[in-house]
Write a structure and sequence with these properties.
By secondary structure, the chain is of the alpha+beta class. Helix content is about 30%, strand content about 25%. The longest helix has 19 residues.
Length: about 425
């Protein structure tokens, strides 16, 4: 299969800074996400998806009618507009490393993508590797997914002889800050099954995510003039520091866990002597494990407060998402179709768990079973992010093959 213009599409999309903003109360969290949304609306209409529109909340929605002789399920393809707020998001200056030679990729004097740390690069010799210049992330997460969906749609429109089901296209804002499905309903998506195109390694199909909660500890101290503070001041910042220090140094953190191990991650602190808020991310593959992590923080907090008479603290727990495997296990066909499409493309499918989450986690629990398909990218949320152009072509091929499989599946009454 040929997907002309894919590189140009990708470069155009990453040139638009769509970084979302943690802590924003607006939706979307940044107005600049509308720029890419409106660009995609125009391109979808140009391809032939006449109903393409951008909602007031920055969701891009469109339909490609089916042409199968059967009444098939409607399939949604989903990717997100925003890029991570963890590192600078723009302006992105893309570098093309054509005919990659298998060596370390030097982005700057201070930043090198080392093959020793990125062994997947050794399998990309001869391909075109795309990176940023080291000052920003690349944005393959998730603009590679958007590009691959657009390429697959264009192929199907240009090849009407290829059978396809009714297809819904959904591009979401604010996925990176956990709000991608906040302002959309399953009824608006209007599909029976969906796939997010938001994974990494070639061949990976992901049907399991972390369970996730956020926890904040609001600490109240006592502030007085530091010159007259003896026996009176209770420093809320020191309470917060003591709580972080009390966490186990050799386990239960992102930097000490892998595989199916969960973690407690203090990621933000704000405030001063009188009041301080400490925010944690809690992650585990089971709801029970998640509860244990929250209980661990509460226990440590109680112990810390004994050393700071006069300090008080309140714990607020906010549910984020749950492991989508709990839902997908009840819908085996949606996963098997993806695995079969990968096989038909000549790849070995690799069924994976995500040490993270996707829009699909929430959508699955909202009633729309949604596993995750690879994009081919690596080092997401990093200045060392990279992707091979040829792998993006392979993802688009998998999407086309997946939709052709669904065109043979009769919808159950």
């Amino acid at each position: 299969m040929e997907f002309p213009g894919m590189l140009e599409r990708f470069l155009a999309y990453i040139a638009v800074d769509t970084q979302s903003a943690e802590g924003s109360t607006a939706f979307p969290s940044t107005e600049k996400q509308f720029q890419l949304a409106e660009m995609l609306q125009r391109e979808l209409q140009e391809i032939g998806l006449a109903d393409a529109r951008v909602t007031k909340n920055c969701y891009v929605l469109a339909t490609l009618p089916g042409n199968s002789q059967l009444e098939t399920p409607t399939i949604a393809l989903i990717a997100h507009l925003d890029t991570s707020p963890d590192v600078p998001g723009g302006p992105v200056k893309a570098l093309l490393h054509r005919h990659y030679d298998g060596k370390d990729i030097v982005l700057s004097e201070d930043l090198v993508i080392k093959t020793a740390e990125n062994p997947l690069l050794l399998g990309k010799v001869g391909k075109t590797i795309i990176t940023a210049d080291g000052t920003t992330l690349l944005g393959a997460d998730n603009k590679a997914g958007i590009t691959e969906i657009m390429a697959a749609l264009k192929y199907l429109v240009d090849h009407p002889e290829e059978p396809r089901p009714r297809i819904r296209v959904v591009f979401t804002p604010d996925e990176e800050i956990g709000r991608g499905t906040e302002k959309i309903t399953v009824a608006e998506i209007d599909a029976d099954y969906a796939y997010t195109v938001d994974g990494e390694k070639l061949g990976d199909i992901e049907d399991e995510t972390f369970c996730a909660d956020s926890l904040e500890v609001v600490i109240r101290g006592v502030n007085v003039h530091p010159g007259f503070a003896k026996g009176k001041m209770v420093n809320a910042l020191k309470v917060a520091a003591a709580l972080v220090t009390a966490l186990p140094p050799d386990r239960l953190s992102p930097e000490t866990t892998s595989g199916k191990e969960g973690y407690v991650h203090p990621h933000q602190v704000s405030g001063g002597v009188e009041a301080c808020t400490l925010k944690f991310l809690l992650r585990d593959f089971s709801s029970a494990g998640l509860k244990e992590h929250a209980d661990t923080i509460r226990t440590l907090l109680d112990q810390v407060l004994l050393n700071f008479p006069g300090a008080e603290a309140q714990v607020n727990l906010i549910e984020s998402y749950r492991n989508m495997k709990e839902v997908l296990d009840n819908h085996p066909l949606v996963l098997e179709m993806a695995l079969q499409a990968v096989r038909e493309s000549g790849l070995d499918p690799n069924r994976q768990s995500i040490r993270g989450g996707t829009d699909g986690a929430r959508l699955s629990f909202m009633g729309l079973p949604t596993p995750n398909i690879f994009t081919g990218g690596s080092n997401f949320h990093s200045r060392q992010e990279w992707i091979a152009l040829e792998d993006m072509h392979k993802t688009a091929e998998v999407l086309v093959r997946l939709l052709k499989l669904w065109a043979k599946a009769e919808k159950k009454a």
